[in-house]
UniProtKB/TrEMBL annotation:
Residues covered by region (Disordered): 188-229
Domain N-acetyltransferase: 1-161
Transferase keyword on record: yes
Xref: SUPFAM superfamilies: Acyl-CoA N-acyltransferases (Nat)
An example Gene Ontology molecular-function term: acyltransferase activity, transferring groups other than amino-acyl groups
Species this chain originates from: Chryseobacterium piperi
Listed InterPro entries: Acyl_CoA_acyltransferase, GNAT_dom
Domain of life: Bacteria
Keywords of this entry: Transferase
Compositionally biased region (Basic and acidic residues): 218-229
Name of the protein this chain belongs to: Acetyltransferase
């Protein structure tokens, strides 16, 4: 079996992939939101998907999508052909599409919504954690993609706070570091630094007169702070 980053060569499988996505959702009575042929074709041709094949047959599929100006990446539409299920294919595809997400968007948070226990286990092994929906992208376009899901009414009744899907999120270490560098303690340090530099001294000058002087000294071991933007 071959698991490859998608290209135009894989467009021949798009109709089968779309149909199996729809059929699988119908059998379970829960969502994979239906995607159009045009939507899936663009994912495949742009190299934003992973396709598994064997002897010219389609085996499995998953694609990535970015949200909130690249701050979030979703791994979506994971599907395996019925003929190849229960053989570890889903795990291999998820690992490959997760790596594709990390390679393309190394600082982005990676998330997914799923109703499947098997997918939850795979995500957990990759470092995802269950989260509430408010931790995910709030991009309206992402949530509008749920309109074709059979559970969309439930999602809206609950004001997008939860649904039948479990939300899972992976936060890369470099994302955490960037947030830490921009937190308030750094700002407080800078303010203290300024106050220490600009010490105000009063010295007598003549009878009953005070002279104010500004001391702009800089400690020899003082280092410049680096701010990330």
């Amino acid at each position: 079996m071959e698991i490859e980053i998608s290209s135009c060569e894989h467009l021949m499988y798009v109709s089968e992939i779309q149909q199996e996505m729809y059929d699988s959702a119908q059998r379970r009575g829960t969502g994979i939101a239906k995607r159009s042929i045009e939507y899936l074709s663009k994912k495949i041709s742009d190299g934003n998907a992973v396709v598994a094949t064997e002897n010219g047959e389609w085996v499995g599929f998953c694609y990535i999508e970015t949200w909130s100006h690249g701050q979030f990446v979703a791994n979506s539409g994971l599907i395996v052909s019925p003929k190849y299920r229960n053989g570890g294919v889903a795990t291999q595809i998820k690992q490959r599409v997760f790596q594709l997400s990390r390679d393309k968007y190394p600082t982005a948070k990676v998330f997914g919504l799923t109703t499947g226990l098997a997918v939850m286990k795979i995500n957990s092994d990759l470092g995802y954690k269950p989260v509430i929906y408010s931790e995910l992208t709030q991009d309206e376009e992402f949530w509008s993609g749920c309109k074709s899901c059979v559970n969309y009414d439930i999602l809206m009744q609950k004001e997008r706070k939860n649904c039948l899907c479990t939300a899972m999120l992976f936060v890369p270490p470099n994302n955490t570091i960037n947030e830490a560098e921009n937190c308030s303690p750094q700002k407080e340090y800078n303010n203290n630094e300024v106050s220490q530099k600009n010490e105000v001294h009063s010295t007598p000058k003549g009878s009953g007169e005070l002279r104010l002087t500004i001391n702009n000294k800089k400690n020899s071991d003082e280092k410049e702070s680096n701010l990330s933007v």
